[in-house]
UniProtKB/TrEMBL annotation:
Pfam families: adh_short_C2 (PF13561). SUPFAM superfamilies: NAD(P)-binding Rossmann-fold domains. PROSITE patterns: ADH_SHORT (PS00061). It comes from Pseudomaricurvus hydrocarbonicus. This is SDR family oxidoreductase. Keywords: Oxidoreductase. One of its GO terms (molecular function) is oxidoreductase activity, acting on the CH-OH group of donors, NAD or NADP as acceptor. InterPro entries: NAD(P)-bd_dom_sf, Sc_DH/Rdtase_CS, SDR_fam. PANTHER family: 3-OXOACYL-[ACYL-CARRIER-PROTEIN] REDUCTASE, SHORT-CHAIN DEHYDROGENASES/REDUCTASES FAMILY MEMBER. Belongs to the short-chain dehydrogenases/reductases (SDR) family.
Amino acid sequence: MGLLSNKVALITGGGGGIGRGVARRFAREGACVVIAEIDVASGQQTASELEALGGKGLFVHTDILQKNSVLAAIDAAVSHFGGLDILVNNAFVPTPNVRLEDKTDDMLDQTLTSTIRASWWAMRAALPHMRQRGGGKIINFFSIDVDIGAWLHADYNTAKAGIVGLTRSAASEWGRFNITVNAIAPTAMGATFHKLAAENPGFAERSAAMRPLGRCGDPEEDIGPAVVFLASELSRYVTGETLHVDGGLHLPGYNSRPADVPVRE
């Protein structure tokens, strides 16, 4: 306990799923956590939970598709808690699951904005505040979907591949400020998982069986500790890395080809 005591963290999309799990884990380690979330109800609820866990919470209504909104969230963190030590770029805005040839320019633009641009904006806005604190921790979110070329996610795969480039570039350049920048590739029982499990009987069991560890991840108990590691002094000599936290799913990978798509068309 206390690995993040007196640290101020901002988590985009911290109101639900993996973001909420990370926020709760941060609070358990004593952090002050800004929940930068577009959904007011879930954002307020998560922020209110953190005090009981040993931390402090602040909800800031944030639309990651809007630069001014992202910058305002960073400003709110600094204004309310006095600084910023940790930035977790978790949120993104999904587009319809359609084949590459059916993805539109608008879908691509939305995905690039909610992943690469939103992370870019937040990181650059956080930089002067982290420098003022003598260093900082930035954790970006990658995805196994890039590794396997997941079907119906072409825009998402493209954007997440860019996140690795952004992560490595920032790690290389900002090490001189004592700022570490890493990426995490998690899979866990978030909102999408629960939706698929409800709509597809047996999905949860099949998903667990795909992983060498034989179970699906919990956002707070399985993903949260890995992000705490990257956000704490335990990882002070780790930067530019991409860490898979998926129960070993990246080893076998998975077949994402829709059943109704023939081998040749």
